[in-house]
């Protein structure tokens, strides 16, 4: 055992670290005035979850309300996913998405077939995703897949006849990350879960990165369009003059939202309420780190009550000096993902009827 870890009452490692000043909003505020509408969520039963644009404002709001309930109550005694099997098939590395999906299934009383690394499947020997999908039909009730290839969900869906949840496809999308992002924001400001009313303040939303090649940023931006009436302006801070790609530009223009692209971080940072950042962009088979000009730390000129979202993993663009500050909403965002994925699995697997009676309090 290393010397530091020898039994010694003076060692700081004998007690877990205390909580910090990081922002950890109260889930109850999201469902206190109105419980989740399970009829809205029932429309997800048996559906694939592939991209952010398949969601409506109402669906995201109700999923997040159910997630908040699940964060607040003990769900395990009800084991609502009893008898259901979920396969997590990850052909690309993950810390959070796979383990939070698996945690969600376990906490709901379902069972998991876990493929943490696609190279242990027949893919290593050249087996097609179409054939792997055909096999999964016999083994499970839902597949959660991550892959480096953007077209991987399309190939799997040629033969898969149980719902597929896209857990990240190359430079494509990461829709359940966007749900986790908006769950964190709706807990932080529950007014965002309701239609805009006179007296509400519109958000200045900042995005550090390139939505065209960062799948989490892309799904976050596309889901943000559902909340456009709550958003004064989206400011995309990027080293690229056109960071979007055609599909995102078209969606932005259709949504009638005010947006700007700039490469000047210092001028824009002080007016932003929410800053969304990511560390890496996909470039075919490789990755590119966020430009070092766009690094944030506790000395960055942030608005006093601004919050930062980051899907993680981070490199040095998000300094740990921010972790114990109220700007840190990214840990709440990561922890809350378990509950929003629980809500999604219950809806997709048609098990909303196994929940305890939900009452407003
Ligand atoms: N946010 C996210 O997708 O993290 P992982 O890569 O660890 O799953």
From TrEMBL:
Which keywords belong to this entry? Transferase
Query: Which InterPro entries does the UniProt entry name for this protein?
Result: Asp/Orn_carbamoyltranf_P-bd (IPR006132), Asp/Orn_carbamoylTrfase (IPR006130), Asp/Orn_carbamoylTrfase_sf (IPR036901), Asp_carbamoyltransf_Asp/Orn-bd (IPR006131)
Compositional bias annotation for Basic and acidic residues = 18-27
Record domain Aspartate/ornithine carbamoyltransferase carbamoyl-P binding: where: 48-185
Keyword Lipid biosynthesis belongs to the record: no
Q: Where is the Aspartate/ornithine carbamoyltransferase Asp/Orn-binding domain?
A: 215-347
Coiled coil ranges:
none
Q: Which PROSITE patterns does the entry link to?
A: CARBAMOYLTRANSFERASE (PS00097)
Residue ranges of the region described as Disordered: 1-34
Asked if Cell division is a keyword of the record, the answer is no
Matching PANTHER family? ASPARTATE CARBAMOYLTRANSFERASE, ORNITHINE CARBAMOYLTRANSFERASE, MITOCHONDRIAL
UniProt record similarity statement: Belongs to the aspartate/ornithine carbamoyltransferase superfamily.
By what name is this protein known?
Answer: Aspartate carbamoyltransferase
- Species name: Haloferula helveola
| Protein encoded by which gene | pyrB_1
């Amino acid at each position: 055992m290393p010397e530091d870890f020898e039994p010694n009452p003076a060692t700081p490692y004998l007690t877990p670290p205390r909580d910090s000043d990081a922002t950890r909003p109260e889930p109850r505020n999201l469902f206190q005035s109105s419980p989740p509408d399970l009829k809205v969520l029932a429309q997800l039963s048996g559906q694939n979850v592939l991209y952010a644009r398949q969601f409506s404002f109402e669906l995201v709001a109700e999923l997040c309300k159910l997630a908040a309930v699940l964060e607040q109550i003990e769900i395990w005694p009800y084991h609502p996913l009893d008898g259901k099997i979920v396969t997590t098939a990850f052909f690309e590395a993950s810390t959070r998405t796979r383990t939070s999906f698996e945690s969600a299934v376990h906490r709901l009383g379902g069972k998991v077939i876990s493929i943490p690394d696609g190279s242990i499947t027949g893919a290593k020997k050249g087996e097609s995703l179409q054939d792997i999908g055909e096999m999964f039909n016999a083994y499970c009730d839902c597949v959660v897949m991550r892959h480096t290839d953007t077209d991987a969900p399309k190939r799997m869906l040629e033969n898969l006849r149980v719902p597929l949840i896209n857990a990240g496809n190359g430079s494509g999308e990461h829709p359940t990350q966007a749900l986790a992002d908006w769950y964190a924001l709706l807990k932080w400001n529950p007014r965002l879960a309701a239609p805009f009313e006179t007296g509400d303040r519109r958000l200045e939303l900042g995005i550090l990165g390139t939505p065209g090649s960062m799948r989490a940023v892309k799904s976050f931006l596309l889901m943000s369009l559902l909340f456009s009436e709550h958003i004064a302006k989206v400011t995309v801070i990027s080293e690229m003059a056109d960071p979007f790609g055609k599909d995102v530009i078209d969606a932005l223009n259709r949504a009638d939202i005010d947006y700007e692209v700039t490469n000047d971080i210092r001028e824009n940072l002080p007016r932003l309420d929410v800053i969304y950042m990511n560390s890496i962009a996909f470039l075919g088979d490789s990755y590119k780190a966020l430009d070092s000009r766009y690094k944030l730390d506790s000395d960055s000129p942030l608005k006093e009550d601004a919050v930062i979202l980051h899907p993680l993993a981070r490199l040095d663009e998000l300094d740990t000096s921010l972790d114990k500050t109220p700007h840190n909403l990214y840990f709440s965002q990561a922890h809350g993902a378990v509950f929003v994925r629980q809500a999604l699995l219950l809806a997709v697997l048609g098990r909303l009827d196994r929940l305890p009676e939900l009452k407003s309090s």
